[in-house]
Write a structure and sequence with these properties.
alpha/beta; 6-stranded mixed beta sheet; 4-stranded antiparallel beta sheet; 9 helices; 23% strand
């Protein structure tokens, strides 16, 4: 069987001690296969965002393992973890995390700047990402002057610019009206299929979850149900504990992740709202 791009083994995450102890996750195991779209579904407080932050290496588990292409993430140095978040992963959050009084293009290329990519190459890749989202004409605009839907498309462009193989999207349309949300979803799933990206979506939106190849339901820190056909050609997909193997190729020409400080801010938000 193909090695999962991400795997959780017995993940637990606990916050506080004694009377303030809260078990956000209680021994969760999950495989995410290359090229599939996976929805992690649950109510507020279920542990779904905590699970995503652990899979994305934005937080560390209290117990259990996270494997990245078969490698235990606990063996990676801090520099390797930062590099993985900035090059292998892309992030789309409900909160836009755009830098005020800064152009759309500068916001999009931030991950490349952190990675040390040259100015000319940053601009080329940033404009290509904006063009893919229909925002090339907004490159010089102040990011905060855009509409909500345009801001979320900028966030997706920023996720695409670093050419990652995995995108994590936490309630990606939660701040948008229904029509704008559908447009953003169409773009996100279209790019995911076109580029063979693995997409992990955290949501309580049933319609958004239904668009994914597979879904897992999280309740009280546990996975209580797994359903869906999995990635194309996946044998036995949809059976609990037996996710299918994705047939997609790693994303080429796809996305990037927010910088370490932004990731930390996002992780902090997620831990309190999971």
């Amino acid at each position: 069987m193909t090695t999962p791009v991400l795997e959780a083994r017995g993940l637990a995450r606990t916050y506080g001690r004694g009377s303030t102890r809260f078990d956000a996750l209680k021994g969760v195991s999950l495989q995410v296969h290359r090229g599939e779209s996976l929805a992690i579904v649950g109510k507020s407080g279920s542990g779904k965002s905590t699970l995503m932050h652990l899979l994305a290496l934005l937080d560390k588990p209290s117990a259990g393992q996270i494997l990245l292409d078969g490698t235990d993430a606990a063996t990676l140095s801090a520099r390797q973890v930062n590099r993985t978040r900035n090059s292998t992963f892309g992030f789309v959050f409900q909160q836009f995390f755009l830098t005020p009084k800064t152009s759309v293009l500068d916001n999009v290329v931030l991950p490349l700047k952190i990675a040390g990519v040259t100015g000319a190459e940053r601009k080329r890749r940033g404009m290509a990402a904006l063009d893919a989202l229909g925002l090339a004409d907004k490159a010089k605009n102040d990011a905060n002057d855009l509409s909500g839907g345009q801001k979320q498309r900028v966030v997706i462009a920023r996720a695409l610019v670093g050419e990652p193989s995995v995108i994590f999207a936490d309630e990606p349309t939660g701040n948008l009206d229904t029509n704008t949300g559908e447009v953003v979803e169409d773009m996100l799933f279209g790019l995911q299929r076109e580029r063979g990206i693995t997409l992990v979506v955290v949501t309580h939106d049933e319609e958004l979850a239904e668009r994914c190849d597979r879904r897992v339901n999280v309740r009280d820190g546990l996975i209580v149900e797994t359903s869906g056909a999995g990635a194309p050609g996946a044998p036995g997909a949809g059976a609990p504990g037996a996710p299918g193997v994705g047939a997609g190729a790693p994303g080429v020409g796809a996305p990037g992740a927010p910088g370490p400080s932004e990731s930390a801010a996002s992780a902090s938000h997620g831990r309190h709202s999971a």
